[in-house]
Specification:
There is one protein chain. By secondary structure, the chain is an all-alpha fold. It contains four helices and no strands.
């Protein structure tokens, strides 16, 4: 789509420099900048709250210094309620 927009002279010079250095057109540089402005920011994204369970340490029999021990405990077909 073609359109006409007004851009500050200094901004246009900077866009032209970026276009020349990156071997792109001015339109491509402006389009990329607009696309970047529309990307969701961290504050826009919903942050998932992880569940926190009370307790007095590690589940019996799990060695937290051993990846295998932790993975085996995670893979057990035991419900979380039963582990509390």
């Amino acid at each position: 789509m073609r359109t006409t927009i007004r851009i500050d002279d200094e901004v246009y010079r900077r866009v032209k420099q970026v276009a020349d250095r990156s071997d792109r057109t001015i339109g491509q540089v402006i389009e990329d900048a607009i696309q970047l402005a529309f990307r969701p920011t961290r504050s826009d994204a919903s942050i998932t709250t992880l569940p926190v369970y009370g307790g007095s340490g590690v589940m019996p029999g799990v060695d937290i210094t051993s990846n295998r021990s932790v993975a085996e405990a995670m893979d057990e077909d035991v419900s979380l309620d039963a582990m509390r």
